[in-house]
Amino acid sequence: MTLASIAAFNSRAWVSRSCLRSLSRPWVARALATFPAVEFSQGYGLTETAPLLTLLDHAGHLAALADTAPRRPLPCGTPLPAVQLRIAGPDAPALPPG
After folding, report:
1. pLDDT tens digits for 49-62?
2. Which residue in 22, 3, 27, 25 sits closest to 14, CA to CA?
3. CB distance 54 to 80 below 8 Å
4. For the residues 9-25, what does the mean pLDDT come to?
5. pTM of the full predicted structure?
6. CB-count burial class (<10 Å; 0-12, 13-18, 19+) for 82
7. Would you say 51 and 45 are in contact if contact means Cβ atoms under 8 Å apart?
8. What is the full DSSP assignment across 27-78?
9. Integer distance in angstroms from the first to the last C-alpha of the chain?
10. Please, are residues 15 and 42 in contact by the beta-carbon 8 Å criterion?
11. Among residues 80, 77, 69, 78, which one has the least CA distance to residue 25?
C-alpha cells in the first residue's frame, strides 16, 4: 500500500505499524507532507518488554527531520515512565547518557 493510496481515504486518524526497523527519514517526510493534519508517533519495544519501551512523538519527528545531519537515523524516542534502559556493547560496560 502506498502513501498516495492511503491518502485517498481522507482520514484524520491513521495507524501504521513498522516491524524490525525504524521508519526511514524519506518515508516520514513523505508521510508528513501527504497527511499534514495527522500527528505521527512511533514506539520501539520488544515482545519481551510487553511491548513498548520508547516513544517518538510528533514534535520529535519534526525535530529529527530538521536535523542537519542527514545520515543520522531517526531516533527511537525517549523511554516511557518507569522504563530504565542501559546501552552497552557486547564486551563493554554501560555507556554514559548522551
Report:
1. 777 888 888 888 88
2. 3
3. yes
4. 60
5. 0.63
6. exposed
7. yes
8. HHHHHHHH-TTPPP-EEE--GGGSS--EEE-HHHHHHHHH-S-TTSPPP--E
9. 37
10. no
11. 69
